[in-house]
Specification:
Radius of gyration: 25 Å
Helix content: 40-55%
Distance between the termini: 53 Å
Order of helices and strands: HHHEHEHEEHEEEHHEHEHEEEHEEHEE
Oligomer: single chain
Structural class: alpha/beta
Number of helices: 12
């Protein structure tokens, strides 16, 4: 058996080496934080953490020690994340709307340490990142009940930013009014067109007139400032709290599975190399018979699975369209590069704007 002095000597030596390695690890964590800020990525990546723990714990041959080493790894990961959180406190994340808007809620959940910066519309928020005022922007791209957000799709096609992640947030719409109001007094409801569409059946049932605003939180602010008891906003719980409104009824959206997909746009493209990665591609086809069919065939030929294909007018020529495609597969693989080369023979434009591991439910 090893004597006490020898054991302490080994511990001191190992601790000295571990201190040096710890500094190296934290320097690497700093580089990771910089990469995440540049690419508009959140700090927590649960899948990556579990992968690291599974791989590294397998290196411990003594089973008695392995569970302790797993705890050691988890503590190291938490320390690294705490350090990254501190480094990213100066990160600026743009969104369209005001405090309490669903985009603000999404931005705060994805980047809890960043400063969220409101802008008046999608284009202004997008431009803030292009111009370097903000590090990334969180914008809605689709609602499960009310469909695509066309303005954001157009910004994606004509703009220069990349999508480095998509996050789903469950949307619960509420009827909000000033204190003391009863539902029988309401004659008009005000909200964003998407929210009005999500609550169309409820609005029709009560015979409310509708007024459109740029987003749900602006609607809540408008109602709060009006002081009127004949008008209500359709907005979130957070908007009710933010603007001191009373919740007359909860969950008035038609679908119980009402989810909005938010994309994080940044100036640089994340280079995911995972085989199960997701990609977003925008393209226009050549003006010839069967060009779209050939393009779709090329994508499938190289083993890439298309999850969605949507068309939007380019607005440059009459009846001219671009296509928005979401797919599964590693677009950075040799097969991906060959696929893009062949696709270019049938397309006048091919633009990869998204490349990320998976969609995340917030």
């Amino acid at each position: 058996m090893m004597d006490l002095s020898k054991a302490r000597e080994i511990i001191n030596e190992v601790d000295s080496r571990m201190a040096e390695l710890f500094e190296q690890r934290m320097e690497a964590s700093k580089a990771v934080a910089c990469y995440k800020q540049k690419n508009g990525m959140p700090i927590t990546d649960t899948a990556r953490e579990e992968e690291v723990i599974a791989r590294n714990s397998a290196l411990v041959k003594n089973e008695e020690f392995r569970s302790y080493y797993i705890n050691f790894l988890r503590n190291n990961i938490e320390l690294s994340k705490n350090y990254q959180h501190r480094l990213l406190e100066g990160m600026r994340v743009a969104y369209s709307g005001v405090k309490g808007a669903f985009a603000n809620i999404a931005a705060a959940r994805i980047f809890p340490d960043a400063t969220t910066v409101p802008y008046g519309d999608f284009k202004s928020a997008y431009k803030a990142v292009v111009d370097g005022e903000c590090d990334c922007v969180v914008l809605p791209i689709e609602n499960s009940h009310n469909g695509d957000v066309g303005q954001v799709m157009d910004l994606s096609f004509f703009g220069s930013l990349y999508i480095n992640g998509i996050y789903d947030i469950s949307v619960v719409q509420n009827l909000l009014a000033v204190e003391g109001t009863t539902i029988d007094e309401i004659r008009e409801v005000v909200s964003h067109p998407q929210a009005l569409g999500q609550c169309a059946e409820y609005i029709k049932k009560h015979g409310f007139k509708t007024i459109e605003t740029v987003n749900t939180a602006v609607a809540a602010e408008l109602v709060a400032n009006s002081g009127r008891r004949d008008i209500a906003a359709i907005a979130s719980d957070e908007a009710a709290e933010q603007y001191g409104l009373k919740k007359l009824e909860s969950h008035i959206n038609e679908s119980n599975n009402n989810t909005t997909r938010f994309a994080v746009f940044s100036r640089t493209q994340k280079a995911s190399s995972l085989n199960d990665a997701h990609f977003i591609m925008l393209f226009t086809v050549n003006n010839e018979a069967g060009a779209l069919g050939k393009a779709i065939s090329v994508i499938g030929k190289y083993g890439f699975n298309l999850k969605a294909l949507k068309s939007r007018p380019t607005k440059e020529l009459i009846w001219d369209y671009y296509f928005y495609a979401e797919g599964e597969g590693n677009i950075n693989s040799p097969e991906g590069k060959t696929m893009i080369d062949e696709l270019s023979k049938h397309c006048s434009t091919v633009k990869i704007i998204g490349n990320f591991e998976k969609e995340i439910l917030l």
